[in-house]
Design a protein that fits this description.
This protein is mostly helical. The protein is built from 18 helices and 8 strands.
Length: 428
């Protein structure tokens, strides 16, 4: 069967009859309108070339929407198109990537770190690191991304490790920095993971606290501008986490001259700045005070550890999915009252209360929580009282076994811990 192929060059004689006649008094708005959306940091060429091609082939009004991070580049390139900036879901991430690209670095982003990061997430991130082989790991975000990234770092450097139990055991902690250095950029003012050797990872429904100086970040970039986007409730909860760090470091049975200086300043500054940052997220002075106070509170507790507020928060948060900072805030005044049974701790609380214009530190914290709209008890956060109370006997030994318990000024008995767990739920 013979096949005949007709080849014809497309020229003006063919195109002209197919195109509508342009009006003599027309303008670009009458010759067709096109919206192009695209581009990313490091990928500025495609949107510009697309917009230029559209304009050159006869489109009248070409609008180009690009991430605001790269808008200045597109605005300088485009002659015929109309570029405009689009909001970015994570502008700080894009900006950070942009700085690294400008320095000639290749980047890969590990996304999807959940609150209370799981060991599954750690394994996924470590696998991505093994594929990319970074020289520098940058953790940008709150406590969860920073804790997850620290732990991913361990498994990236040591792919022979396969379980979390291998880090929990009495074996020597693996040596890091053979493959990469580690940098933290906190987006919240509270966790202090950027200056801490500690992480909290959830595995099989249980929160596990790990701590070793190998996991101390090499670089911490604490920029208050990064925290401006925090919503008020996150500002409140993470801020009270920082307050808890400072107060628990003060009464820790390992407290010393240096940790006291750091923790005392943090308590005073947080009490002053946190309500202001909560009321106005764009109060950059309050934001700066908070991120600095969070940092020095982290330095304090990294050296002297914490107490049973954190032991209880780890336990309750892991089982009932309460955000860590929120759990700390609810528990803190009850533990202050409990710890006041120790003469040394009582004296510290009284002294700090007087410096803050009061007489009772537990009441000062309750008032601060109220101003931040934090509930008085877990009854407002965990509606199923029966389910909670049914697990008190299970939670008490879990909290007592937490590493933070051993530096509390009073080591509770099982019965005392059960009573505290009931009290923080009922509020009485």
């Amino acid at each position: 069967m013979e096949v005949t192929t007709l080849v014809r060059t497309v020229g003006l004689d063919l195109l002209k009859p197919a195109l509508p006649q342009r009006q003599l008094d027309g303008h670009k708005g009458t010759f067709g309108k096109l919206l192009i959306v695209g581009g990313a940091v490091g990928y500025t060429g495609a949107p510009y070339l697309t917009a230029s091609a559209a304009a050159r082939t006869g489109c009248g009004l070409v609008s180009l929407g690009v991430p605001k991070t790269i808008w200045p580049i597109e605005a300088a390139k485009c002659v015929s198109a109309m570029p405009f900036p689009l909001p970015e879901k994570n502008g700080m991430l894009a900006r950070g990537e942009g700085y690294l690209h400008e320095a000639g670095a290749e980047t890969a982003v590990i996304r999807g770190v959940e609150p209370d990061p799981s060991f599954d997430t750690v394994q996924r991130g470590a696998a991505e690191m093994l594929r990319f082989e970074p020289d520098l790991i940058v953790a940008l975000g709150g406590g969860s991304p920073m804790d997850a990234a620290k732990t991913m770092w361990v498994y990236y450097e040591h792919p022979e490790l396969t379980t979390l139990e291998q880090l929990l055991s009495a074996n020597p902690f693996p040596t890091l920095r053979k493959k990469a250095r580690f940098c933290c950029i906190p987006s919240t003012a509270g966790t202090a993971s950027e200056v801490s050797r500690s992480v909290v990872i959830t595995d099989k429904g249980t929160k596990h606290g790990l701590g070793n100086m190998e996991m101390m970040p090499d670089i911490a970039i604490c920029d208050p501008q990064v925290t401006v986007s925090m919503p008020p409730h996150i500002t409140a909860e993470t801020g009270m986490d920082a307050m808890t760090h400072a107060l628990e470091a003060l009464v820790s049975n390992r407290a010393n001259y240096v940790s006291d200086i750091l923790a005392e300043r943090a308590v005073v500054d947080i009490a002053d700045a946190l309500p202001r940052a909560y009321a106005d997220g764009h109060d950059i002075a309050a934001r700066e005070t908070m991120i600095n106070a969070s940092m020095i509170a982290g330095m304090a507790f990294t050296n002297v550890s914490l107490g049973i507020v954190h032991s209880m928060a780890h336990t309750i948060g892991g089982l009932f999915h309460v955000a860590h900072g929120l759990a700390d805030a609810v528990i803190l005044p009850y533990v202050i009252a409990f710890n006041s049974g120790d003469e040394r701790a009582r004296g510290i609380y009284t002294d700090m209360a007087r410096r803050m214009g009061g007489a009772d530190m537990a009441l000062i914290i309750r008032d601060l929580n109220s101003r931040l709209h934090i509930p008085v008890s877990f009854k407002e956060l965990i509606p199923d009282e029966a389910a909670y109370m049914a697990r008190v006997a299970e939670m008490a030994p879990m909290a007592l076994a937490d590493g933070c318990t051993k530096t509390n000024p009073i080591i509770p008995t099982v019965e005392q811990m059960e009573a505290l767990l009931r009290q923080v739920y009922t509020g009485v």
